């Protein structure tokens, strides 16, 4: 029986180019790649140019894949990406800081972000480190015996307008954005 290999498609939108890639994630092979390098550095996404680029490449990519592309991973480099560093100190009166407690803290932060920054889509919430009883950790421990924790968190988001514009263009090809990422510039 033939096993269907796992594939991932990436669309990279940056200041100096558009790039699309089809990766075979089982064999770590790049099956298709094309890019359009701009003549000049662009502050904003040229949607007409993106449409032309996708028109040229989606059908070629699907021919290599042998089926339709349904999902795509979108990587965006844009000055509009909003990065917020924050510190959060929380007290847990039970004396144990569990994963459930940390998940609830992060959910509260996410909800507060959504309420305060309605015009942005939260891409990532990264815990840079956390401090318990004066000791810093960079990865989560199973259970922490303390009633207080301090988290250093980075929130990365992008304006809803950008995501909506790109998603509307991709809908023409019946493609949904599977995952958003931000490209450092």
Q: Explain this structure to me?
A:
With 185 residues, this protein is α+β, with helices and mostly antiparallel strands. It is 26% helix and 43% strand. The protein has 3 helices and 11 strands, in the order βββαβββαββββαβ. It has a 5-stranded mixed beta sheet, covered by helices on one side. The protein has a 4-stranded antiparallel beta sheet with strand order 5-10-7-8. It has a two-stranded antiparallel ribbon with strand order 6-9. Helix 1 packs across helix 3. The protein is elongated, with a radius of gyration of 20 Å. The model has no long low-confidence stretch (mean pLDDT 87).
Strand order of the largest sheet: 3-2-1-4-11
Order of helices and strands: EEEHEEEHEEEEHE
Helix content: 25-40%
Uncertain spans: none
Structural class: alpha+beta
How many helices? The count is 3
Overall geometric form: elongated
Mean pLDDT: 87
Strand % is: 35-45%
User: Based on DSSP secondary structure assignment, what is the total number of beta strands?
Assistant: 11
User: What is the rounded Rg?
Assistant: 20 Å
> Span from first to last CA?
45 Å
Largest sheet: 5 strands, mixed
Give the quaternary arrangement of the chains: single chain
Blueprint (SSEs and pairs):
Layout: E1 7-13, E2 17-24, E3 29-37, H1 47-65, E4 71-76, E5 82-91, E6 96-97, H2 99-116, E7 120-132, E8 135-137, E9 144-145, E10 148-159, H3 160-171, E11 176-182
Parallel strand pairs: 1-4, 4-11
Antiparallel strand pairs: 1-2, 2-3, 5-10, 6-9, 7-8, 7-10
Helix pairs in contact: 1-3
């Amino acid at each position: 029986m033939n096993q269907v290999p796992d594939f991932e498609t990436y669309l990279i939108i940056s200041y100096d180019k558009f790039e699309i890639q089809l990766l075979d994630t089982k064999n770590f092979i790049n099956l298709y790649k094309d890019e359009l390098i701009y003549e000049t550095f662009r502050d904003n996404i040229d949607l007409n140019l993106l449409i032309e680029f996708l028109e040229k490449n989606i059908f070629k990519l699907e021919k290599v894949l042998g089926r339709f592309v349904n999902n795509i991973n979108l990587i965006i480099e844009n000055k509009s990406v909003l990065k917020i560093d924050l510190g959060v100190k929380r007290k847990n009166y039970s004396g144990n800081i569990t994963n459930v407690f940390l998940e609830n803290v992060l959910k509260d932060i996410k909800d507060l972000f959504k309420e305060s920054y309605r015009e942005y889509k939260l891409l990532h919430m990264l815990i840079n480190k956390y401090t318990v009883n004066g000791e810093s950790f960079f990865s989560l421990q199973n259970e922490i015996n303390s009633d207080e924790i301090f988290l250093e968190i980075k929130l990365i988001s992008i304006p809803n307008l950008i995501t909506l514009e790109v998603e509307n263009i991709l809908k023409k090809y019946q493609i949904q954005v599977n995952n958003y990422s931000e490209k450092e510039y």
